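Side project, low priority. Logging it here so it doesn't get lost.
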Amino acid sequence: MAFVHGKNTVFKLDNPAGVLTDIKAYCDQASLQRMNDLVETNPFGAAAKQRVKGMADAKISIGGPFDPALDAVLATDPAGDASRTFEFLPAGAGAGLPKRTGECHVSDYNVDSSSDGAVTWSANLEVTGPVDSTVQA
């Protein structure tokens, strides 16, 4: 098994104009959480819960040191209800490495500042539709 360092991670997100933009220079953390709804199907008198798999879901959280260039990508929502394309390369860019892509909406974008530290930002993205898991060519 080959292990990789997080320093190679690449994250791309559509800017407000709909252009996929590499924002790795502004990120120091990124995570993709994939979940499945589990629906209970317990009949009366059951001694243990029974479940069936429901719909897939995913959320992304990203963050890092604040920069006005990154703010221009995240602070302005795209027109209307348009989703944004994302591309997440957790092991970095390179042939044969994993690639996760899909569409998402920015659910929240936060900028944090204090008098004794660096300004930071964080954002949560809600995936709409499937997450495509492929390998890079």
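Brief comment: The chain has one domain: 6-135.
Revisit when time allows.
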